[in-house]
Amino acid sequence: MQMSHAIFERNSIILLIGVLITVAIGGIVEIVPLFLIKNTIERVEGMRPYTPLELAGRQIYLREGCYTCHSQMIRSLRSEVDRYGHYSLAAESMYDHPFQWGSKRTGPDLARVGGKYSDEWHQVHMKNPRNVVPNSIMPGYAFLSEEVLETEEIKDLIKAHRMTGVPYDDEMVENALADLKAQANPDSDYDDLLNRYGEKVSVRDFAGDGPKVTELDALIAYLQMLGTLVDTDVYGIEAKLQQ
What we know:
By secondary structure, this protein is mainly α. It has twelve helices and no strands.
């Protein structure tokens, strides 16, 4: 073993060639699956792109570093399924750039937090987490309810996601701002929003702060849709694939 390894240690050219071959093999192993991604991640019934308001909320989620404490991937272990719900399906992250699977959990997994708590619970939790979870070490984010959501770049954000393969069409791009405002206002004409993104899109004043659209509106809208797109009661253990 020592003699076979000595040739690499004593000859820099051979060592360089060995390194290049090793890197090439590793690169091929990581790159080739990317060309087969459409075959490895099947679409499942119910999946859709994020609405503009949900996408804006996801950006706030990333900005505030929520992913450092909360994962969004339920593993197929009995302890996790019992606590968090049906294990995560690959297709549920197909429009996430980047995905939020995470590597540690200081707080609970949020893959299926949508609908688990009321909007009012989230409002209180964001302002002072200990009001609803006494032992929480999460910092408060009260300022989110005071910050008006910046919407100038929402169209560009959707365009950027479309470039990564998210199926936003031209109509979704052109009406991004109108759809964002419509989802946060239950008194608006939101029929076009539902036509573009589906009848199951939630439309309401998420933050309970009236006509203005705040960052808290966007964040709660994002949290309330997590894990709600795929009906796991229908799919059971094996997800039913679209034909």
